[in-house]
Amino acid sequence: MIASYGRGGAGNMSNNPVSPLSYKDLQTPTLKTSVYTTGRGGSGNMASNNDPKEARLRQDVEPVVRRPSAGAVYAGRGGAGNIFHNDELTRSKSAEYAVDDTSSGKSVKSLDLSFANKWLRSRK
Q: Could you tell me where the Gly residues compositional bias lies (predicted)?
């Protein structure tokens, strides 16, 4: 079985005929101490381990639901060119320049680049 690790590249490939995980690795661990902790710490987050089911439920953490971003949205690897604001992402004009995949695949409306040509010519 070939496995890929890291960000990519041939140096991050491994040919391992057997999975490094065993059945034991995938089992839910059981708490074996008389006291267990929950939360971030502190004596208020310590409880006696006298009910295994209750202890297991307290150890499980629910995922935090992501709320929509109200500010900037970051894309790519970084840099100012990869920061977008909500008003830029929700412009109504974006639909005018969308590609129509259902018919010929041509742009629904062509983009006027005359301002870019004027700017490029003025730079000479």
A: 1-11
